Amino acid sequence: MTVKERLLHAARELIAEKGWGAVSTRVLAERAGVGPGVVHYHFDSLHALLVQASVQALRTAVDGLTQVLDEVDDPQQALAALLVALDAHDEPQELFTETLLAATRDDALRRAVADVLADFRRTLAGWLALHDVPTPEATAAVLAAAVDGVLLHRALTPDLTRGTVVPVLARVLR
Q1: What's the rounded Cα separation, in Å, for the pair 130 and 105?
Q2: Per-residue confidence at 89, pLDDT binned at 50, 70, 90?
Q3: Contact, 9 vs 1, CB < 8 A?
Q4: Which residue pairs from 27-35 have beta carbons closer than 8 angstroms and sit at least 24 positions apart in sequence?
Q5: Which of 38, 122, 131, 132 could form a disulfide with 34 if both were Cys (CB 3.0 to 4.6 A apart)?
Q6: Tell me: the pLDDT tens digits for 36-49?
Q7: What residues does each domain of the chain span?
Q8: DSSP letter assigned to residue 22
């Protein structure tokens, strides 16, 4: 793993563990096993590093979700498969929760996250249209928001399982 990859990996871990505001250059460099000056050698700022780390993780997760859609045939299966894929993702869900929350206070991060989510909604809307779901764009937007909400609520209510969520959201798809 290169130094830059170690920094990105350490940033993802620390965001998930401590939250955006608690990640400092010193703590990040220590976690990555490098000196603090190395952070600024590879990135313009700590903020730029945190944005890149979190957006890359989100993009990877979303790209995996689009592949999941290719493996299912109906909307309810798609919903269940998306939730399974999120549960199985390598990155902790706290990273995504922290990233979404930080995006509400940071314009650069908001734009980057919005781009990733817009790509996913377009892909999901296209899949829904192919499967004759009415108003696919609106349905994709609501489903994506609902899944984001489930991730946020799971931080507080871990028993909000796929078995609870899928039947309720599946009614939206009918």
Answers
A1: 36
A2: low
A3: yes
A4: 32/3, 32/6, 32/7, 33/6, 34/3, 34/6, 34/7
A5: 38
A6: 999 999 999 999 99
A7: 50-173
A8: G
Distance CA 169, CA 165 (A): 6
Residue 157 amino acid letter = T
DSSP 90: S
Does domain 50-173 bear CATH number 1.10.357.10?
A: yes
Quote the pTM value. 0.85
**Token pair 């563990």 is at which residue?**
17
- C-alpha–C-alpha distance, residues 48 and 170, integer Å: 38
Distance between CA atoms of 56 and 37, rounded to whole angstroms?
23
Q: Output the six-digit token pair for 22.
A: 């608690």
pLDDT in tens, 136-149: 999 999 988 888 88
Q: Residue 39 in contact with residue 7, Cβ under 8 Å? A: yes
Residue 18 three-state SS: helix
Length of the chain: 174
